Amino acid sequence: MIERNKLLTLNKAHKILVSNMVDKYRKHQRTGQNIASNFLNPYELQIVISYLNMCHIPYSVYEPCPFLEKKIIYFGNYDHFITFYQISSLDSQNISHSQLLGSLFAIGFQESTIGDIFVEDGVCYYVNLSKMNAYLEENLTFVGRHPVVLKKVETLNLLNKHLELFTILVSSMRVDNIISKIVSQSRNQVKQMILNKQIFLNYQELKKSDLLLKTNDILSIRRIGKFKIGVQKGTTKKENIILEIYQYI
Length: 249
Known about the structure:
The protein is α+β, with helices and mostly antiparallel strands. The protein folds into 3 domains: 4-75, Ribosomal Protein S8, Chain: A, domain 1; 82-153, Alpha-Beta Plaits; 163-248, Structural Genomics Hypothetical 15.5 Kd Protein In mrcA-pckA Intergenic Region, Chain A (Roll). The chain is built from 6 helices and 14 strands. The chain has helices at 12-31, 42-54, 97-106, 133-139, 175-183, 187-195; strands spanning 35-36, 60-62, 72-75, 82-89, 117-120, 123-129, 142-143, 146-153, 163-170, 199-201, 204-205, 218-221, 225-235, 241-248. The strands form 3 sheets. It has a 6-stranded antiparallel beta sheet. It is globular. The relative contact order is 0.11.
């Protein structure tokens, strides 16, 4: 069992996450069923693994591809918990990462039930929880305005690097300043996005607009996309920072 004092340093959401994981383990012990978590981002995975290790609870992590960021933990044997889909438009139009992500949210998927998304030549490759397959196939009929067809594939044979590099000019490394440049919104609009819980920094909800970002920080902006902070390439004559940004595509 998880000791009470081991949960004290976690926020409410992560306490619930850890407790639910222990409940899954207990169910596996009781029934012998193979049981898996929903998707865990790298920060959540670190928290769960730390607590399971401290409590000496045996588990496995499913990592079908080294480039997947979201993973699952399972108890027992692997039981086809994950399905890969190729999603393409019927009108021969390209569909984007943000369009698919927005469509998944629109049909009721939650952050924990949405896996990794990759786009190559306008075709999306999506990692889905197998328990959600029927719901996905029944409800994801459009991505944006484009009718789509879903096809199960055995594995993800991706050809390209899925990061797109661009540069921005910023007066400082403040998070609101950088996001403002990335999404072409005012800093006041960015602050409202933070209040609306639309922005995550390193997979945790962003609550302050004056934090200073550093290289390799990850920004996730709901319905817009995910970005990685690159290196500072210098300054302009007006002393603005030339900053590399990588967008996940």
